[in-house]
Specification:
The chain has 853 residues and is α+β, with helices and mostly antiparallel strands.
Length: 853
């Protein structure tokens, strides 16, 4: 199944509403119990967000006189750590308890059968949760408060937090219909679900905060910014995105450390942030030695190949003459631009771009051979940021030897860090993550699905992480032994009794953070130092444990990474020594975990079953220890008082995302793993859509099929009908000039094209594959264009662009740039030129902007 939370350019999901359901299917209008209000409150410190999502449900006796059970699914960010759930039935509050999932489910079923009120929260996948509430009575408000911890995403010089407010369907493969994670789907969709969203957050240490999606009301309260929505409440039909910049030192890096002293554990949990200086002086940073390995195998053909080549060309053009680079293209043959890294002067860069465009042949995927050749190239001397950047879909099988190369490289004093940019809808994430972790780099995933954010845009943003670094080879040292950090290597410290953690390079425009823990020790003070090179102290801070604020979110953050690591290991397919090695990397002794009481098993089937049980038991123990829900645990709450038996069940609906076709409102969406045929009682909300069966009956009539076949039709039949109705044949190849003239700006933006005002110029169904910009009076010098001048392309969601293209980059690449965007019937396409600095506000040149498909 496509899991969007794994990708940098994914479109996130959101929050559900309730629908009263039961009985047989009829053509009566659908009626829903409204989710009356959704509130998000909490505190954000640096990138750490401790949030409380409160959802209030209820209905009157006039709307429905039955006692109901509610079932709804709501997504949260994939890296969110759910720490607690509180349930209130009217004035009675029930605190949930985290238990092993099977026991929790049995306890819930027993309470439901006995007529007692109960609530159960389970997790189907890292980003999809299910809530069941039994015993909802008419006239009684039910409030569910979900507490979770999340890390904001580093974006440019600051942080970005995306708050999902609605969800859309996901495609599920036929061979995954019965899997647990396939259940993370909306059952019904409403244009207006009848509830509103409000926001009230405190941001500590933030300099400024803004939102590209919603108007904010920001007030300063001491060292804290209070952020609310200007309208107070809004329709939750799009994500709410917040971005802010931390306070920075003007001319030097800074270090901020947050602590949580857990005396019961005997551990101090921490989050350390190394932030670059606010001012950047190009040419004063650390020179780079970058080896680019670009996958030109057959599996990369199409939009993936175009996006990769564009990104490489752009990356090379932004290198300075102080930098050096090597460029390798690999499939079943490996071609090198030069036998050793060369200085990145303009002439050499032009030759490398010509080399990239000249070789268009493809074949297999000899990633391992190419990586070994890259690691054995000559190395620059002195303080240099050394990186190997691999752009691939990682569709290979020789993972063992590839990882051995990474291990050998990590042992070198002049190591090259290995990072993987993985482009595919179904990448080999196991290999990419492991290669980056062992190689001391990063793994980023970009989906090639055109309905997600444009992959070229995402590649541009990801590659910005490898711009000229301020410092290279940093490590975080602390005056405690045995430091642990999820996802980072621990190093030997030059000071006795100290330990160190590898931080890598400090980019010019992005903070670097590490979450970990150290033993409490005997002293009250805890000292952290950021060290570069040969014991050069870049920044430091000393903290008193007795004066540190309690931040249990830090423990949850550390624990969540361990829990996710165990879940990943359980489903990874590792065997034997590789599995034992992975357990060690997670901080566990494999001899203690994997050796059963009766010794080693003779038969492989028994050994596999025993290992699976041991890993599952470990996951349950760690989940319970950190108080975090996992796939094998659940939050359960039951009342001891007797109540009334449940008379009906409520199903889940979600707000229809802005721009989606009205055919989906109140209707079944294909690919959900089954059709629910239910009649709705009560009278909370009426939806004008004919409902799922009505929609398919209309589709059957137009197709000439017999409506009698509807009740026995397979899901494949429903999917076929849906595609026939919603997804006509793709438009023939073509292009259209959508704007010609002089842009007129208002508030720093100029709307160049809107399909709602000019229908027919872009086909109703098309994969938009290129952007073209021309200047009738002559193209300007790219260096003369303000870096903030940017073209935004919106498809469907008019709050968040699906593609961003800096005008200077497009001009530099001869006026054309690849795209990979799907436009479906009814979706709005909008082109906006933004000029935040006002460079073109008074004297914009004439230009032509076209899209192709």
């Amino acid at each position: 199944m496509f899991n969007p939370q794994a990708y940098e350019n994914s479109r996130p999901d959101g929050i559900g509403v309730l629908e009263i359901a039961g009985g047989e299917e009829t053509d009566q209008p659908r009626r829903f119990v409204p989710l009356r209000q959704t509130d998000l409150k909490g505190e954000v410190v640096g990138p750490l967000a401790a949030l409380r999502l409160t959802q209030t449900f209820g209905y009157t006796r006039e709307q429905c006189d039955q006692v109901l059970e509610a079932l709804y699914r709501f997504p949260l960010p994939g890296d969110a750590a759910v720490t607690a759930v509180r349930v209130r039935f009217g004035d009675v509050e029930i605190r949930t308890e985290l238990k092993e999932r099977g026991k929790a489910e049995a306890e819930y079923d027993k309470a439901k059968q006995q007529g007692r009120q109960a609530a159960l929260v389970t997790r189907e996948s890292p980003d999809v949760f299910t809530l069941q509430v039994a015993g909802i009575q008419p006239g009684q408000d039910i409030t569910i408060e979900t507490s979770y911890v999340q890390l904001a995403r580093a974006e440019g010089p600051g942080w970005s937090l995306r708050i999902p407010l609605t969800t859309s369907p996901r495609y599920v493969r036929s061979d995954e219909q019965t899997s647990r994670h396939a259940q993370g789907q909306p059952l019904f969709l409403l244009r207006d679900p009848g509830h509103r969203f409000s926001l009230d957050l405190g941001l500590c240490g933030a300099g400024t905060v803004q939102s590209p999606t919603h108007r904010l009301d920001v007030t300063r309260e001491g060292q804290r910014l209070r952020v609310r929505l200007q309208e107070g409440e809004v329709l939750p039909d799009r994500d709410c995105v917040l971005s802010w910049r931390p306070a920075q030192e003007a001319d030097r890096p800074s270090l901020q450390v947050l602590l949580h002293d857990d005396r019961g554990d005997g551990q101090v949990y921490f989050l350390a942030l190394a932030t670059p200086p606010a001012t950047r002086d190009p040419g004063r940073g650390v020179p780079r030695e970058v080896i680019l390995l670009v996958d030109h195998s057959g599996s990369m053909e199409g939009p993936k190949w175009q996006a990769a080549d564009w990104a490489v060309e752009k990356f090379l053009s932004e290198l300075s003459p102080r930098d050096s680079f090597a460029l390798g293209l690999f499939h079943d043959k490996i071609r090198w631009f030069a036998p050793a890294p060369r200085q990145a002067d303009p002439g050499t860069v032009r030759e490398a771009v010509e080399f990239l465009k000249r070789h268009r042949d493809s074949g297999g995927t000899e990633l391992g051979v190419a990586l070994e050749q890259a690691l054995h190239q000559a190395r620059a001397e002195g303080e240099v940021a050394r990186h190997v950047l691999i752009i691939t879909d990682a569709a290979v099988s020789d993972a063992g030897r590839i990882l051995r190369l990474a291990d050998q490289e990590a042992a070198r004093a002049d190591r090259r860090r290995i990072s993987v940019l993985c482009i595919d809808a179904a990448p080999n994430s196991l290999l990419a993550n492991e290669l980056a972790e062992r190689g001391g780099g990063l793994a980023r995933f970009l989906t090639s699905r055109p309905e997600e954010e444009d992959i070229t845009t995402a590649l541009d943003e990801v590659l910005a992480d490898w711009s000229e670094p301020v410092l290279a080879g940093l490590r975080l040292e602390m005056n405690r032994p045995q430091a642990e950090a999820a996802g980072r290597d621990t190093l030997a410290s030059s000071w006795s009794g100290w330990s160190a953690i590898d931080l890598g390079d400090l980019p010019a425009g992005r903070p670097v953070w590490v979450a970990g823990r150290v033993p409490r020790g005997g002293s009250r003070d805890l000292t952290f130092r950021v060290i570069a090179g040969r014991n050069w102290e870049v920044a430091s801070c000393r903290l008193d444990l007795q004066e540190a604020d309690a931040r249990p979110a830090l423990k949850a953050l550390f624990g969540a990474r361990r829990v996710r690591g165990l879940e990943y290991l359980i489903h990874s397919g590792y065997e034997g020594d590789e599995r034992r090695d992975q357990l060690r990397r997670l901080g566990y002794d494999p001899d203690q975990i994997l050796t059963g009481p009766s010794g080693k098993k003779v038969y492989a089937e028994n050994a596999r079953a025993e290992t699976a049980a041991a890993l599952r038991d470990l996951l349950v123990r760690e989940s319970l220890h950190y108080g975090l829900i996992s796939a094998e645990t659940a939050f359960i709450a039951t009342r001891t008082e007797a109540g009334k038996p449940v008379e009906g069940t409520v199903a889940v609906a979600n707000a229809l995302p802005a721009g989606w076709s009205e055919h989906f409102a109140g209707g079944f969406v294909g690919g959900l793993g089954g059709v629910r045929r239910r009649v709705i009682s009560g009278s909370a909300l009426s939806v004008k859509s004919p409902g799922p069966m009505g929609f398919f009956r209309a589709a059957l009539a137009r197709s000439g099929m017999a409506s009698a076949d509807l009740e026995t039709a397979s899901e494949e039949s429903f999917m076929g009908l849906l595609r026939a109705e919603e997804m006509p044949a793709a438009a023939p190849a073509g292009s259209a000039v959508l704007f010609a003239g002089t842009p007129r700006f208002a508030g720093g933006e100029a709307v160049l094209f809107d399909s709602a005002a000019a229908p027919g110029q872009v086909p109703e169904r098309a994969t938009i594959d290129r952007l073209q910009v021309r200047f009738p009076d002559g193209a300007p010098d790219p260096a003369s264009l303000d870096p903030g001048l940017c073209l935004l392309i919106f498809v469907d969601d008019l709050a968040s662009p699906r593609a961003r293209a800096r005008l200077a980059d497009v001009v530099r690449q001869r006026g054309e740039r690849p795209l990979n965007l799907l436009r479906l019937p009814g979706q709005v396409v909008r082109l906006v030129l933004v000029d935040p600095a006002g460079a073109w506000a008074k004297a914009a040149p004439r230009l032509e902007v076209a899209l192709g498909w």
